[in-house]
Design goal:
Elements (H helix, E strand, L loop, with lengths): L7 H4 L3 E3 L6 E5 L15 H16 L6 E12 L3 H7 L5 E8 L5 E10 L2 E14 L21 H5 L1 E3 L7 E5 L14 H16 L8 E9 L10 E9 L3 E9 L5 E10 L1
Antiparallel strand pairs: 1-2, 2-4, 3-6, 3-9, 4-5, 5-6, 7-8, 8-10, 9-12, 10-11, 11-12
Helix pairs in contact: 2-5
């Protein structure tokens, strides 16, 4: 299943395979995508895929009067993941997720990501079940009215590099409905990508950019809306010889933290 270009999943070329009712399966192309803050190859699109496919594994378990919202996302990246992606530029990253444990007021899904048959990451997404919204955003079935989207990752995410006078790395989130989810907020995968990008940039701001993301852990506090004041920022917590960590935060247009997380990287 493909999505229109003014849909958040369509923006990133995500395709969903619904043939197995017991698994949630989708893929995302990553060729040529780089961190807009550093110009380096990035694993950020994996967060977008994880939020979608593992979130879908939780979503299909909802009752007729229920909806799901992500509450936690944890991504663990295998050593050599970027090299495996670079070695197969014409192959998308595949994500396969399944439910873990019983469904309660929350649900947990486990996801494995691979490229060209090589496992590159595992992840989990925990979702809350909430009353189904009375209104949901709808998208057209085709791309007739979709805006032209640039090929850069920043264009697809509707973000811009922000100015900062300190050690933090900042991306500004524009108000673009094409990156909003069904309840009218920035898609959780897009905002999780923003956190990975700023976290990685904060740890690679020096002349020797060698730290590679090993894990990203995200907590979703509230819906995020783009526009004036909405941004992603990261501040290094520790810079060691072989490992480093950064605290990351996404702030909505209301000035409140919408997501917080921690990124750990290795070299």
């Amino acid at each position: 299943m493909r999505y229109p270009l003014n849909h958040p999943l369509g923006r990133f070329g995500i395709e969903t395979d619904d043939r197995d009712p017991d698994l949630a399966t989708a893929s995302v192309p990553t060729a040529g995508l780089v961190n807009p803050l550093t110009g380096l190859p990035t694993i950020a699109p994996l967060a977008m895929l994880v939020d979608h496919v593992a979130g879908a594994a939780n979503h299909v378990r909802r009752g007729t009067d229920e909806w799901t919202v992500s509450s936690e996302l944890a991504l663990e990246v295998a050593p050599g993941a970027l090299e495996a992606i670079a070695a197969a530029p014409d192959r998308p990253v595949l994500g396969v997720a399944r439910a873990m444990g019983p469904k309660g007021s929350t649900a947990l899904a486990l996801c494995e990501l691979s490229v060209d048959g090589i496992a590159i990451a595992t992840a989990t997404v925990r979702s809350f079940y909430i009353p189904a919204p009375t209104e949901l955003v709808t998208w057209p079935d085709d791309d007739a009215d979709a805006p032209v989207v640039g090929s850069k990752l920043a264009d697809r995410m509707a973000v811009e590099v922000g100015e900062t006078g300190g050690a933090a790395a900042v991306l500004v989130q524009r108000d673009d409905r094409a990156v909003y989810n069904g309840v009218g907020a920035v898609h959780g995968g897009v905002s999780s990508m923003g956190l990975e990008l700023v976290g990685s940039a904060a740890l690679n701001s020096g002349p020797d950019a060698e730290f590679v993301t090993g894990s990203l852990r995200v907590n979703f506090f509230r819906p995020m809306h783009g526009g004036a004041g909405a941004h992603y920022s990261a501040t290094p917590v520790r810079m060691g010889r072989r490992t480093a960590t950064a605290d990351v935060v996404a702030v909505g247009s209301d000035g409140r933290p919408a997501l917080v997380g921690r990124l750990t990287a290795y070299r």
